[in-house]
Amino acid sequence: MDWGLVEIVSFVATVTNVLLFLSGMQIISKIYTRGSSQGFSVLPFVVCFVSSTLWTKYGLLSEDSIMILVNFIGVVIEGFYTAVFYLNTKQKQKKLQMTIFSLLAFMFAVLIYTKYFVNPDLALNHHGFICAAFNIINYAAPLSSAAVVIRKKSTENLSLLLSVVYFLVSLEWFFYGYLHQDNFIMIPNTLGILFCSFQLSLFVFYPSKRTISDQKPDVVTF
Fold first, then answer.
1. Which domain holds residue 17?
2. pLDDT for residue 2
């Protein structure tokens, strides 16, 4: 089998993205072992589940097998994470329930809208626009921690490894979108590259002040 540039980029993006999904196992293992989700947020898992579901639908509309494969894997993994998190939350607070309900309601609203309320010829564009906008919001969300980093002049609460991985994933999907001439994939990942580059620059200007003795494990976020 002869592999061209498209096949190589598709394979690398798929493997990297699946590994990123699996990185959440670190937190889920701790939650399951302790029997409690205290100290962790369900938001990253639910957001990733919703995003994966929407992009799976986009893959179906655009007949893109790679998008379907990668994001369906994300749906299964992130759905599992969310279920484990919820089952190990002893006190089901309204905030937790509202967070999950609101995001799932948004997801189903988008799926119903593009299925029943949009001309089939326009469904791909409408759905792609929503997916891209949702991705941009997700990429921009971690930047809220930048203000804390700049104020404290330390990146001790940021994960360098995850920042690098996010940068690589954004770069890979940008090239994937470029090779397929798909702006809905290319544009959000262009911004993702910029956001991740900014976050990585913080490690240069504000190195961590933690010593080896007081260093805490980095929390995996999505």
1. 5-205
2. 59
